[in-house]
Amino acid sequence: MTNRSIRISALTLLLILSQVICAFAFEQKSRHATLRYSDPKLVREFNDRVYFGRSLLRILRKRNVVTSEEEGMAKIDIIIEKAMVVLDMFPDNMHITVVLLPRASDVARVYKERYGRSANHIAYYSLSEKTIYLSVSNVNLEVISHEVGHAVVDHFFKVRPPYNIHELMAQFTAKHIQD
Hints:
The protein is 57% helix and 13% strand. The protein is built from 7 helices and 5 strands, in the order αββαααβαββαα. The protein has helices at residues 3-23, 40-49, 54-62, 68-87, 104-115, 141-156, 163-176, and strands spanning 26-29, 33-37, 96-101, 123-126, 131-135. Strands 1-2-3-5-4 form a 5-stranded mixed beta sheet, sandwiched between helices.
């Protein structure tokens, strides 16, 4: 490899890394999750769309939240904790990343970049990255609970269950999150 091609490769890598870093300029961390987003408006919209019923709202009110970012993190932690109760699975050191994206097309673009195939997901959990990608314009409590269900199952088992079982547990989580 010539010096010129090494420089070009290094600059290309640097450009890609800078785009990734700039794409998620904001990051908040909590006990169970790291929340990444490109604009604080996404967290406010996430908060508006993820509606908590009485039981979850009671838990949220006990948290000391002031900002939209803190409320978003609190909601994600509460959903994760409730999903563990619903599934009766309490993995050690449960920690995931949640990436807020504006639209479903952004989720589809990320999915295609990661896996090389098209999909029309509004959200998905990446097993290899331990990351949930969410379309904020399509998110609701059921959607995020489903993906969190995948994350809890993934963290709980040493050997992953078959996909159909994984999916059933995620559906069960989404159905019973408000109970």
